[in-house]
Design brief:
The protein has 15 helices and 21 strands. The protein is of the alpha+beta class and 435 residues long. Among the domains are: 2-93, Rossmann fold, CATH 3.40.50; 120-179, ATP-grasp fold, A domain (Dna Ligase, domain 1), CATH 3.30.1490. It catalyses: 5-phospho-beta-D-ribosylamine + glycine + ATP = N(1)-(5-phospho-beta-D-ribosyl)glycinamide + ADP + phosphate + H(+).
Length: 435
């Protein structure tokens, strides 16, 4: 099987790495890739959001499967163009990808499917936004209705800040979704879908805020870990029965079947499980830890989803190890990240056992040296027999990397490793910190 992976980030590096370990995958190509991906497979400098360019490359390479990583190509209709060329593709159509591209659309789907989620209002101007904020009260949750690379959400107790974020969305012609605040720990669950059948992967938890203790603005994600030993035993089954399958069924009923991965962002609140958001692709950096633990060959799974054959696959196999990913971000991220800086120490990390580096915002300079090229530069993934050992290895690795002005959180998976996250045994979830 020859596979083309579309995207430039850490999620795509994790996907490429897993595909290369699949004995049934003979070749992997990536576009545009990054410096780390380019060390593993051929890369191609095309516009990943251009349906024609991606399709032409897939045809030229005669690949058997195209895997689309980020949200922007999906929203641009890249999957539709590839499918029209009769090439299997892992990733939903442009219409189905509206589950991520429009939070208002996702709320409508959840309402039709009876999916438990936060109460919400859509606002198109400041007056509507103010009314919604007052109706729900603090803490205020304001979400850009469109794609914002994981940074379009503001959660604050400051009403002025909430209104300012809403106004910034209105100023560029967008709407906002204002929701009630959901308490409790958060869970990320990826669910593979072929348009009918759904198959869950292992749950993970990520860390959105830039600073330790979940302080500061939201980012695309500063770290993640898996498994979640504190999660209720029946959580995955509940998400499948109450969230994923009803959503996939509703999309099929509308004539826009969803084939790809449905990312279910969940809060285990004091009133039960609620959906925070849907994404139409693998999350980053959760993918880095989930795929590090997956033992079932990835290529066959993604091909089964692309071809409507998920009901034929065997039960997934997982490593008993824990995985922790810590993201190294550039100076000034998430505002105006500093780029073009030399990255040192990568070879030292590769010499460690049970640790690997996944590149995100990296490139080569004119001398062929690896430099920073984005806000989230890379992630160091540590594996261990438990979370504490996995944390130790990840932090040992990231401590060896030198990038001027870089930053990373030192509390990824810390509370979970100490056993400080809990849920009530009767299934009514206790309020708890999200970290």
């Amino acid at each position: 099987m020859k596979v083309l992976v579309i995207g430039p980030g850490g999620r795509e590096h994790a996907i490429v790495r897993s595909l290369l370990s699949d004995p049934n995958v003979s070749e992997v190509h990536a576009a545009p890739g990054n410096a780390g991906i380019g060390k593993l497979v051929p890369t191609y400098a095309i516009d990943a959001n251009d349906p024609g360019a991606v399709t032409a490359l897939a045809l030229r390479l005669a690949v058997d499967l195209v895997v689309i990583g980020p949200e922007a190509p999906l929203a641009a209709g890249v999957a539709d163009a590839v499918r029209a060329a009769r090439i299997p593709v892992f990733g939903p159509s442009q219409e189905a990808a509206r589950l991520e591209a429009s939070k208002a659309f996702a709320k409508a789907i959840m309402a039709e499917a009876g999916v438990p989620t936060a109460m919400a209002r859509v606002a198109s101007d400041a007056e509507q936004a103010a009314d919604a904020l007052d109706a729900f009260g603090a803490p205020y949750v304001v979400k850009d209705d469109g794609l914002a690379a994981g940074k379009g959400v503001v959660v604050t107790t400051d009403r002025t800040e909430a209104l300012a974020h809403a106004q910034s969305c209105f100023d560029v012609g967008g709407d906002v979704v204002i929701e009630e605040y959901l308490d409790g720990p958060e869970v990320s669950l990826f669910v593979l879908s072929d348009g009918r059948t759904v198959v869950p992967l292992a749950p993970a938890q990520d860390f959105k805020r830039i600073f330790e203790g979940d302080e500061g603005p939201n980012t695309g994600g500063m770290g993640a870990y898996s498994p979640l030993d504190w999660a209720p035993a029946g959580l995955v089954a509940e998400v499948i029965s109450r969230v994923a399958q009803p959503t996939i069924d509703e999309m099929a009923r509308r004539g826009t079947p969803f084939a790809g991965v449905l990312y279910c962002g969940l809060a285990l609140t004091s009133r039960g499980m609620r959906v925070i958001e849907f994404n139409a692709r693998f999350g980053d950096p959760e993918t880095q830890v989930v795929l590090a633990r997956l033992r079932t060959p990835l290529g066959g799974l993604l091909m089964a989803a692309a071809k409507g054959q998920l009901d034929d696959i065997d039960a997934l196999r997982w490593s008993p190890d824990a995985a922790v990913a810590v993201v190294l971000a550039a100076e000034n991220y998430p505002d105006a990240p500093r780029t073009g800086e030399r990255i040192r120490g990568l070879n030292k990390v590769s010499a460690l056992g049970s640790v690997h580096v996944l590149h995100a915002g990296t490139a080569h300079d004119d001398d062929g040296k690896i430099i920073s090229a984005g806000g989230r530069v890379l992630a160091v993934v540590g594996l261990g027999t438990d979370l504490e050992e996995a944390r130790e290895r990840a932090y040992e690795g990231i401590g060896l990397i030198k990038l001027d002005g870089s930053q990373y959180r030192r509390d990824i998976a810390a509370k979970a490793a100490r056993g400080e996250i809990s849920v009530a045994p009767d299934g009514v979830y206790e309020r708890a910190d999200r970290a």
